[in-house]
TrEMBL record:
Name of this chain's protein: 3-hydroxy-3-methylglutaryl coenzyme A reductase
Pfam families reported for this sequence: HMG-CoA_red (PF00368)
Alphabetized CDD domains for the sequence: HMG-CoA_reductase_classII (cd00644)
Alphabetized InterPro entries for the sequence: HMG_CoA_Rdtase, HMG_CoA_Rdtase_bac-typ, HMG_CoA_Rdtase_cat_sf, HMG_CoA_Rdtase_CS, HMG_CoA_Rdtase_NAD(P)-bd_sf, HMG_CoA_Rdtase_sub-bd_dom_sf
Gene Ontology MF: a single term: hydroxymethylglutaryl-CoA reductase (NADPH) activity
Family, as annotated: Belongs to the HMG-CoA reductase family.
GO biological process: coenzyme A metabolic process
UniProtKB keywords: Oxidoreductase
Sequence intervals crossing the membrane: none
């Protein structure tokens, strides 16, 4: 009889009951089942409230990047990820910015709510009709969240625009909403839902989508710093970094990996603080395609005396209100480690995140321009392989060091060297 993934009433079960079904479905061992069902600091009840059909958790290493000084304030930065060398590279490159540190600034935390209007006889006339009713629309939006307005946020503007599509012209109205210390999805979506019927009445059109945009061009954060050429290994290394950046700025195939390296630093901080890393990724990569010039999130240049200058600019819609930031015990602890408080903590968090992304990008570029990216990766990968094949204690160092020395970092080689060591 073939297996089936149809589990009637699965969503009604307790997590442990779901895990039993999954264990039987996949023939999991007791150890494998235990690994999935370990809830750690999160706890079963909290996990079960956060998403649907919970049967366990997926723990991730939590490291801490040091040496960060942003706007004259020192930070130890939590980073949750599984990739080796990222935390070390960010910490090392941050050290090169001391004692001055990294300078960062943010725009007001304004998000865009989009409302799609179709079936319009004259879309440009509809656009004008919406502009004439701007204050009425703003007031209606702000009635939905008086608390946000009380703290200085709320809808600040209405920007309709006409776009051409394969289905004909549409009027897309942007609600510009200051979300203060929240990421803002709930507030923005609620306002867009409330305003939609009024836009239909004003224009005679029909609304379909009304939802937040993750291309947060009104919520940008910048960070910049200077690295002495001697710290990086001399002016020749600086020139190599600039050559690598020129490649990324000119070639989309390279840009994809270049920007991925930046997100290697950004995503772990977003995750550690309970924010939506998928929204940050979507906004960043969309911005890379949207903005003028090259698609790299960073820009690198050389000062008159040969030092390296770096700058990053990216949409950064992170918050401290709501979501996992307010419910996940580890995320709350990470927010405390960063010293973030309301009001203003979300802006500071965005600046810290961008600073990490800038340093991480430099770490990758420097490795590529000098000894090669694999060196740092392979060192940790060798240790992981040694552990994977059963090495213990001092055996781990001996097996991994031999693999690195011989330039053969593979599981079969690790197994061979461990066998020889034990014999």
């Amino acid at each position: 009889m073939s297996k089936t993934s149809e589990f009637p009433g699965f969503y009604k079960l307790r997590p442990s009951e779901r895990l039993d079904l999954i264990k039987n479905f996949a023939n999991l061992s007791d150890d494998e089942t235990k690994a999935i069902g370990n809830y750690g600091a999160l706890g079963e009840d909290t996990a079960n409230r956060m998403i649907e059909n919970v049967a366990g958790t997926f723990p991730m290493p939590l490291g801490f990047a040091v040496n960060f000084k942003v706007n004259n304030e020192s930070f130890v930065v939590p980073m949750a990820l599984e990739e080796p060398s990222v935390v070390a590279a960010a910490s090392n490159m941050a050290k090169g910015t001391l004692p001055e540190g990294i300078i960062a600034e943010s725009m007001d935390p304004v998000m865009i709510g989009q409302i799609q209007l179709v079936n319009l006889k004259d879309p440009f006339k509809a656009k004008q009709q919406i502009l004439e009713k701007e204050q009425e629309i703003i007031d209606l939006a702000n009635e939905q969240d008086p608390i946000l307005v009380k703290f200085g946020g709320g809808c600040k503007g209405v920007k309709p625009r006409v776009i051409e599509t394969e289905r004909g012209p549409m009027v897309i109205t942007h609600l510009l909403v200051d979300c203060r210390d929240a990421m803002g999805a709930n507030a923005v979506n609620t306002m867009a839902e409330a305003v939609a019927p009024r836009l239909e009445t004003i224009t005679g059109g029909r609304v379909y989508l009304r939802i937040i945009s993750n291309l947060a061009i009104h919520r940008m954060t910048k960070a910049k710093a200077c690295w002495p050429k001697d710290f990086l290994g001399g002016e020749e290394v600086v020139d190599g970094i600039l050559e690598a950046f020129a490649f990324a700025a000119a070639d989309p195939f390279r840009t994809a990996t270049h920007n991925k390296g930046i997100m290697n630093g950004i995503d772990p901080v977003v995750i550690a603080t309970g924010n939506d890393w998928r929204a940050i990724e979507a906004g960043a990569h969309s911005y890379g395609a949207y903005k003028d010039g090259h698609s790299s999130f960073t820009t690198w240049s050389k000062s008159e005396n040969g030092d390296l200058l770096g700058e990053i600019e990216i949409p950064m819609a992170v918050g401290l209100v709501g979501g996992a930031t307010a419910t996940h015990p580890t995320a709350k602890a990470c927010v405390k480690i960063l010293g973030l408080e309301i009001p203003g903590g979300a802006e500071k968090l965005s600046q810290i995140i961008c600073a990490v992304g800038l340093c991480q990008n430099l770490g990758a570029l420097r490795a590529l321009a000098s000894e090669g990216i694999q060196r740092g990766h392979m060192g940790l990968h060798a240790r992981n392989l040694a552990i994977q094949v059963g090495a213990e204690g001092e055996e781990i160092n001996k097996v991994s060091e031999r693999m690195k020395r011989d330039g053969k970092v593979r599981a079969d080689i690790a197994e061979k060297y461990l066998k020889e060591l034990r014999e």
